[in-house]
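Reminder to self: tokens first, then the designed residues, so the page reads top to bottom the way the pipeline ran.
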């Protein structure tokens, strides 16, 4: 049976536990579930919010491609990836990856792989809104490219 990733790009928040339950329910072969939830941090008290934009249709397609690669490479039994867009306040959820596998290492690696590729390959853009000033678009980081490249 082929496993397909569950991919969503949405404005509204998500419920981490509900997503884990949905992914793992009725799958007795799952021995490990790893979650990653990315939050909007305050960046030393200077940040009020992040504004996230995406390329509709293309973002979902790229997330699906990344998810399918992770499932095949790590033998995942389930994968959910959710990325929000819009203005997100400090402390709110931005992204969720849930990877399920028979064993823990595959679940950890699958979740890590997906995040490393989401940061560099999926068409999302981030603008920081400071507490005292207008925001700036965030540039790509070499460290994100290096994290992605370790999977080659």
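Designed residues (152 positions):
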């Amino acid at each position: 049976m082929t496993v397909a990733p569950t991919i969503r790009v949405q404005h509204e928040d998500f419920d981490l536990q509900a997503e884990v339950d949905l992914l793992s329910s009725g799958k007795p072969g799952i021995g490990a579930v790893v979650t990653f939830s990315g939050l909007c941090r305050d960046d030393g008290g200077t940040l009020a919010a992040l504004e996230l934009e995406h390329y509709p249709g293309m973002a979902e397609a790229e997330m699906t491609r990344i998810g399918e690669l992770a499932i095949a490479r790590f033998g995942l039994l389930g994968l959910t990836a959710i990325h929000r867009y819009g203005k997100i306040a400090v402390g709110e959820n931005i992204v969720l990856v849930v990877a399920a596998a028979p064993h823990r290492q595959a679940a950890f690696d699958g979740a890590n792989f997906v995040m490393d590729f989401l940061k560099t390959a999926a068409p999302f853009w981030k603008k920081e809104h400071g507490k005292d000033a207008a925001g700036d678009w965030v540039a790509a980081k070499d460290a994100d490219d290096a994290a992605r490249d370790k999977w080659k």
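The chain has four helices and eight strands.
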